[in-house]
């Protein structure tokens, strides 16, 4: 079999069989309807959505940091009791000084 | 008064999606004819055409108007057809022993006397469709554009987005691939 000739014949057959440009009924209407159904993004809605996401992230971060501060105190920092004592002595420092002067 | 293409495109870009309809109506026959070169089922052809128009709508802002809208659209159509071929390579592995009777008759006529096998016979059209389905997507695209549609290498480069040397390399490989497929067909049928 002469493959070169067969190739030529088949290509000629494909050329002779040019496809038609028939378009299905109301195709353009369907495309336009599809485009219209794809609602353009609302910039305000996008902004609100972004704000909500940011708010949720902030709350989550706050909770995480809060939990970390409560459950994982770093060595060398004050405990809750120390903190209250320090607070009291700071608050009453001026009164203590006055007592010492007298 | 009928609006020009440029006016329609400008209106679509300003948000009037309805102005896109006359463009779809005018150019759909070309889009469908091109898609029919690469897909067989009407549902697939319609899907390709729909995808082309959706892409054209979403990328319309990138159309600068330097070349005709039709050229820009045909580039998009050819690239969408290529993507379709890459996603639908299901028929490449089938054997030539499943040829229909008219196809076998046509081949036998060709073997006996190449001149007697008519190119416009339905069997020849079926057979070439079968051979094209076995080509790789790139080879099928190049053979279709270069040999069947008789386009120049430069035109193909413009349509596909490939460089001119790449089109030449792919055309060389595509012809080799087609020769191998024809040889396999001859072997399956006559050995």
Determine Rg of chain A (CA atoms, Å).
40 Å
Which regions of chain A are unreliable across 5 or more consecutive residues at pLDDT < 50? none
Q: Could you say which structural class the secondary elements and strand pairing of chain B correspond to?
A: mainly alpha
The computed structural class of chain A is mainly alpha
Looking at CATH, which topology of the largest domain in chain B would you report? Arc Repressor Mutant, subunit A
- The radius of gyration computed from the alpha-carbon positions of chain B, rounded to a whole number of angstroms, is 20 Å
Give the tally of β-strands of chain A.
Answer: 0
Give the biggest sheet of chain B: none
Question: Largest interface, with Cβ-Cβ < 8 Å?
Answer: A-B, 32 and 46 residues
Helicity range of chain B: over 70%
**Residue-averaged pLDDT of chain B:** 90
Return the domain count of chain B. 2
Structure summary, number of beta strands of chain B: 0
The oligomeric state of the chains shown is: heterodimer
Question: What's the short version?
Answer:
The complex is a heterodimer of chains A (102) and B (191). With 102 residues, chain A is mainly alpha-helical.
What are the key terms here?
heterodimer, A: 102 residues, mainly alpha, 5 helices, 74% helix, B: 191 residues, Rna Polymerase Sigma Factor, Chain: A, Arc Repressor Mutant, subunit A, 9 helices, 71% helix
